[in-house]
Amino acid sequence: MQNATLKPRRRFLTNAAGSGLAAFAGLAGAQSFDFKPNQRYPDPSVLILDPSFAKYRIYSSTVEQLGSGMRWAEGPVYFPEGGYLLCSDIPNNRLMKYDEKTGKFTVHKHNANYANGNTRDRQGRLVTCEHSVTRRVVRTEKNGRMTVLADSYEGKRLNAPNDVVVRSDDTVWFTDPTFGINGEWEGSRATPEQATTNVYRIAKDGKLSAVITDLVNPNGLAFSPDEKKLYVVEWKGTPNRSIWSYDVAADGASVSNKTKLIDADGPGALDGFRVDRDGNFWCGWGFSGAFAPEPTDVGGGMKAHLPLGKSEDMDGVKVFNREGKPIGFIRLPERCANLEFGGPKRNRLYMASSHSLYALYVEAHGAV
């Protein structure tokens, strides 16, 4: 493996006006990257960690940057009826829209209550985790009105709803860590009212139940293709971030048999993820920010606690098979927080990554 092929293909710009993408989308004042797509096939950014991943790589497909100028991109969700994708720009408190037909990347909604995770229900309606201030899960009806699905549990406010999925039985499942109320960057600081950080289920009749209560800051979640398994990222896992697997009860109302399936195994950080039809995990990946416990002399009479890894070595999407074995990696110039399969054939992988939205066509299809 030649290190030269692994260097991020980017040039950091301090002024968003220098990026045509950012200026076009009206994103002045936000940081942006001038991305240079690779001209060679296959794209050296798509790494085969195990031969089993080769069938999912398209030889003549390369990573594309579709838009930039965000501050922390999250929660991509695809709408096949309209041929567009929405994603959250949490610190800027807005939802962004990428239109596949026109290629335009624009603001879809201002004052989005610090929206984080988004999904589409079986009726084609947007379901959103409002991450801070309102701290609730809402559904946008076809007429544009908002329906509050959950904002409290046992008489106390939710923490900061993070990611959400809808099962085929129309139940809504979401995670509720504290990220959105830990500071002022992704909303407003507040004291958690819940004693634990839970995974919740909203039944068809609207009843809210806590199905998992022993994870520290649960994050991304998804079901297996047959919906017999629920997978959840534990952001504050010990010692590393992990994906836990649960068996879903026959009635779909509870889970059991907690099993660690994937361990980040070091400074790598799991975030949001999607499962394809073969049961593989396509995981947002990046550096956790871990630093050495002892300081190192960095010159100028200063000592610093140096990071235990390099972001440029870890930013991207890591792919695991259904047994939890790493099989592939898509290297990106920015950390990927979450992703979504979209396009008419559900084989276009959209990657919400820090300041930008990227895409790559693959020989895999989203499970739902």
UniProtKB/TrEMBL annotation:
Q: Provide the leader sequence positions.
A: 1-30
Citing just one GO molecular function, the answer is: gluconolactonase activity
Q: Which Pfam families match?
A: SGL (PF08450)
Identify the domain of life.
Bacteria
- PROSITE patterns membership: TAT
Annotated InterPro entries: 6-blade_b-propeller_TolB-like (IPR011042), SGL (IPR013658), SMP-30/CGR1_Lactonase (IPR051262), TAT_signal (IPR006311)
Every SMP-30/Gluconolactonase/LRE-like region domain range: 72-355
UniProt entry keywords in alphabetical sequence: Hydrolase, Signal
EC number(s) on file: 3.1.1.17
PANTHER family linked: LACTONASE DRP35, LIPOPROTEIN-RELATED
Q: What is this protein called?
A: Gluconolactonase
Q: Which organism is it from?
A: Variovorax paradoxus
